[in-house]
């Protein structure tokens, strides 16, 4: 009889211990889960292109990169009238234009800056070192040639972008990478939006430019593992 009661007591003690262990394990799991920080979701960016088509002397595209509150403009058009269309597009978003990125040294990418600056006086205008150098070297002679042709569509102010600090732009904290600064041809860069896995280049019309672009793609794939 004594042994039977003793066995029952041992079994009850064992069951009680197992219950306590299970409760402790559940508590630890709950505590660990509560310590885990929620993953930050990438900001959704919207990319809207603008191309004047037949309404422009040069069919050069600009792009609006929009976040929830901010906009970055890529290239400012050639003619004042088309730059003013960009101004209207930006104003219609109801968001703040923080930056204009000029992707190439030719005036069809930056002559419209005066119209942009007039509408958004605090906007930051940037370009790569090679692009800034190219614009500085040619802006006066380009303006002297084109102003009589463009007439009222000529720039009212000659604006040279600032040199881009680093190798990226940001839109509401989301990165837009400038690829090719140290590539085969730094005067022809590519923008890469990691969150959308989208890239685009301003000016790759010649065989030399395409060759440089292919080399830059290869270099980035080797160094970062990212293909685009």
Q: Explain this structure to me?
A:
β2 (62-66) and β3 (70-74) form a beta hairpin. α2 (80-93) runs parallel beside α3 (113-119). The protein is built from five helices and ten strands; from the N terminus they run αβββαβαβαβββββα. The protein has helices spanning 2-35, 80-93, 113-119, 129-150, 207-224, and strands at 46-50, 62-66, 70-74, 96-102, 124-127, 162-163, 168-171, 174-179, 190-193, 198-201. It has a six-stranded mixed beta sheet with strand order 1-2-3-4-5-6. It has a four-stranded antiparallel beta sheet with strand order 7-8-9-10.
Q: Which architecture per CATH?
A: 4-Layer Sandwich
What is the level 1 CATH name?
Answer: Alpha Beta
Inertia-based shape: globular
CATH topology: Metallo-beta-lactamase, Chain A
Task: Kindly state the number of beta strands.
Answer: 10
Enumerate how many helices there are, as a single number: 5
**Helix share, percent:** 40-55%
Quaternary organization: single chain
Q: Tell me the series of helices and strands, N- to C-terminal.
A: HEEEHEHEHEEEEEH
Strand order of the largest sheet: 1-2-3-4-5-6
Rg of Cα set: 29 Å
Distance between the termini: 81 Å
As residue ranges, the low-confidence spans are 8-16, 204-225
Mean pLDDT: 79
Let me know the CATH homologous superfamily: Ribonuclease Z/Hydroxyacylglutathione hydrolase-like
Strand-residue proportion: 15-25%
Provide the structure class: alpha/beta
């Amino acid at each position: 009889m004594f042994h039977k009661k003793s066995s029952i007591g041992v079994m009850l003690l064992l069951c009680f211990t197992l219950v306590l262990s299970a409760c402790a394990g559940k508590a630890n799991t709950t505590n660990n889960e509560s310590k885990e920080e929620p993953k930050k979701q990438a900001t959704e960016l919207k990319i809207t292109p603008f191309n004047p088509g037949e309404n422009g002397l040069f069919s050069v595209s600009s792009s609006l990169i929009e976040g929830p509150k901010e906009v970055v403009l890529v290239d400012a058009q050639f003619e004042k009238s088309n730059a003013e269309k960009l101004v209207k597009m930006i104003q219609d978003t109801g968001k703040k234009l923080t930056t204009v990125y000029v992707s190439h040294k030719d005036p069809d990418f930056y002559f419209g800056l005066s119209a942009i600056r007039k509408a958004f006086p605090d906007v930051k205008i940037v370009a790569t070192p090679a692009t800034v150098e190219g614009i500085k070297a040619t802006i006066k002679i380009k303006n002297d040639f084109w102003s009589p042709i463009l007439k009222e569509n000529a720039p009212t102010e000659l604006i040279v972008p600032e040199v881009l600090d680093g190798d990226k732009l940001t839109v509401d904290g989301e990165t837009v990478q400038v690829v090719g600064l140290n590539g085969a041809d730094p005067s022809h860069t590519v923008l890469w939006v990691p969150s959308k896995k989208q890239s685009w280049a301003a000016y790759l019309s010649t065989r030399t430019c395409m060759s440089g672009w292919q080399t830059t793609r290869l270099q980035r794939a080797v160094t970062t593992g990212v293909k685009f």
